Amino acid sequence: MLRSCALAVAVSWISLTVGATPLTQQEIVSLCGNAEDAAHCGRLIEEVQLKRLPNLARRDGAQLLVSLYPSGSATFTDSDDPVNGRSYSLWDFLNPINAVVLYSTAGESISFIILARTTNRRFDLPAEPQLSPDRLHIVTADVCPNRCINEIAVWRVAPESLVKELVWTAGESWSDVAATWKDANTLAIEYTPSGTGKAAIVERKLTDPTWMRVTPN
Length: 217
What we know:
By secondary structure, this protein is mostly beta strands. The protein contains three helices and 15 strands.
């Protein structure tokens, strides 16, 4: 799985989305290997996805316009302000829940946005979302040495919201962490333990007591 955190980090830390037309690891490496920075990487990926997802979105200069359902559009405008600048790129489409995934950069920080097309509601996520097979949950794995929350989180998908329910933090220094769904109730978490250089996988059921349950605000 690929992950990112600024260009070098962008090609090494982006995991693949479960969606209508996810890019393969090889495609991302090919597209972003010579990108100038993380924002440029996102734009290169967007060029491919705009062709694969016709009528879902279009680019008009600094503006990315995403179609809503059944009508209307949502606009995301890039800004090159040196302090508060931000870029947005089309990343993928989660067809089972009719939601668009956007890739966003602000300086060296990278995040993802889920846009619900039926409500125009937007949900900021620290890492790329992975949708569960039953469409009821999303998992994010935001683990890295710098500028990360360093947690694996499970979010509940509802018609009007996306709510963080479970959080788990590794008890040791891990790198190259990616979480995918083995089934609707089980996560397969791939990681490289510090100092080993060898990938390992641990499974966590959503009912596992090691999860910390998030109290709703």
